[in-house]
């Protein structure tokens, strides 16, 4: 069991979502430089200035590369600190290093947060070697030595824990997207199956009456052509949509017309008001089903999370090219809703697959607003 755990850690790749160097990194470096300068000016019990300068550069400089090159940063920093401590031992120089050198804990954290498994293990070995040497350079009590090891091991554990939590969250987001893709593919499958069934029936009818009523057979061909065109449109929408192998019931999917059924009389707050306006006929079935699902999910979220909400408004507006869905509630901003929720991830995935856009966030005055804009044909990007 332990061997499997170590092997799993060793082959762990680097996270792919490491942020780039930004203003906060430069601000951190500037703050540590200022802290170091203040210590040099105010403290009297420090090691010789050249050693202090080397130690400060060794810790502060690599902070800028702690995410992009975590092992290199740790090796450079703790390697230089090891050299400083060896010089202090050999020369017998008195005085301690700067307290700002505690920023080395950040490098330890970054190693386990952003490094690969091999980098984490190798870097930890470098850190433990330095700890053993620095405890000789600075005469400390056993309790202080244990505390030093504890601080660095805690920083490593914290980095690994945050890394694991981020990994779990990314996995949950991927699963939410996959569920939404599966649901959308299932609905598209049902729609195409209905079209194909109609084509088969019309073809059978046309063949049966072709000899006795040729003109009616031509009408059947026209119906088949129209149904085939619609089917091809839906099949194009299915491209790129993943679907798990599950049994599918060939049931009609809800559309824009069913959005009106989401309204209620307000006997149990909040009251739900639905408005349908504009050109809402001849929508792609996938778009109609998406509008209904987005409205349904948004209303469910508002009921759960909109504190003190008295009204939820749903507005669907269509024009020549797009259909716009807007859901607003008048709940309190303290509801704690966040746009990164997995339900919202699935809604955004559905809108994106159909070539549309999706936004959710606090409204300008009060409450929460969800807005989606989809092309009428549901053509994927």
Tell me what the structure shows:
The chain contains eleven helices and five strands. It is of the alpha+beta class and 381 residues long. Strands 1-2-3-5-4 form a five-stranded mixed β-sheet, covered by helices on one side. Strand 4 and strand 5 (368-375) form a beta hairpin. Residues 240-251 have low confidence and may be disordered.
Number of strands: 5
Number of contiguous helices: 11
* Distance N to C terminus: 46 Å
How are the strands ordered across the major sheet?
1-2-3-5-4
Q: Averaged pLDDT, please?
A: 81
Order of helices and strands: HHHHHHHHHEHEEHEE
Low-pLDDT segments, ≥5 res: 240-251
What is the strand content? 5-15%
Radius of gyration, whole Å = 32 Å
Report the sheet with the most strands, covering strand number, pairing sense and barrel closure. 5 strands, mixed
Assembly state of the chains shown? single chain
**Which percent range fits the helix content?**
55-70%
What structural class do the secondary elements suggest?
alpha+beta
Q: Which outline best applies?
A: elongated
Which short descriptors sum up this protein?
elongated; 381 residues; 11 helices; alpha+beta; five-stranded mixed sheet
Short description:
The protein has 381 residues and is an alpha+beta fold. It has eleven helices and five strands; from the N terminus they run H-H-H-H-H-H-H-H-H-E-H-E-E-H-E-E.
Question: Secondary structure elements and their pairing?
Answer:
Elements: H1 2-10, H2 23-42, H3 49-60, H4 70-91, H5 104-114, H6 117-137, H7 142-209, H8 214-238, H9 256-259, E1 271-278, H10 285-305, E2 311-318, E3 322-329, H11 342-353, E4 357-362, E5 368-375
Parallel strand pairs: 1-2
Antiparallel strand pairs: 2-3, 3-5, 4-5
């Amino acid at each position: 069991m332990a061997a499997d755990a170590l092997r799993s850690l060793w082959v762990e790749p680097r996270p792919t979502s490491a942020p780039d160097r930004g203003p906060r990194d430069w601000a951190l470096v500037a703050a540590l430089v200022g802290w170091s300068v203040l210590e040099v000016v105010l403290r009297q019990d420090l090691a010789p200035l050249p050693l202090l300068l080397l130690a400060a550069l060794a810790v502060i400089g690599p902070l800028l590369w702690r995410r992009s090159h975590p092992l290199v940063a740790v090796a450079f920093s703790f390697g230089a600190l090891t050299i400083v401590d060896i010089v202090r031992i050999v020369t017998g120089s008195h005085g301690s290093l700067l307290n700002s050198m505690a920023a080395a804990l950040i490098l330890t954290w970054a190693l386990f947060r952003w490094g690969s498994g091999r980098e984490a293990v190798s870097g930890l070995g470098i850190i433990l070697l330095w700890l053993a040497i620095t405890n000789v350079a600075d005469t400390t009590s056993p309790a202080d030595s244990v505390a030093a090891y504890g601080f660095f091991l805690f920083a490593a554990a914290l980095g690994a824990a945050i890394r694991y939590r981020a990994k779990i969250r990314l996995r949950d987001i991927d699963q939410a997207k996959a569920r939404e893709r599966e649901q959308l593919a299932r609905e598209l499958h049902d729609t195409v199956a209905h079209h194909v069934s109609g084509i088969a029936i019309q073809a059978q009818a046309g063949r049966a009456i072709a000899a006795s009523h040729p003109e009616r057979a031509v009408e059947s061909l026209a119906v088949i052509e129209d149904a085939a065109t619609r089917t091809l449109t839906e099949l194009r929408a299915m491209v790129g949509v993943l679907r798990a192998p599950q049994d599918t019931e060939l049931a009609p999917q809800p559309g824009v017309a069913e959005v009106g059924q989401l309204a209620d009389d307000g006997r149990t707050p909040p009251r739900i008001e639905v408005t349908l306006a504009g050109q809402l006929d001849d929508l792609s079935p996938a778009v109609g089903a998406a509008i209904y699902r987005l409205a349904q999910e948004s209303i469910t979220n508002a009921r759960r999370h909109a504190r003190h909400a008295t009204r939820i408004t749903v507005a669907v507006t269509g024009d020549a090219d797009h259909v716009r869905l807007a859901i607003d509630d008048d709940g309190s901003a303290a509801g704690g809703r966040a746009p990164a929720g997995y339900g919202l991830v699935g809604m955004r995935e559905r809108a994106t697959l159909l070539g549309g856009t999706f936004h959710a966030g606090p409204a300008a005055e009060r409450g929460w607003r969800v807005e989606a804009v989809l092309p009428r044909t549901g053509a994927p990007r």
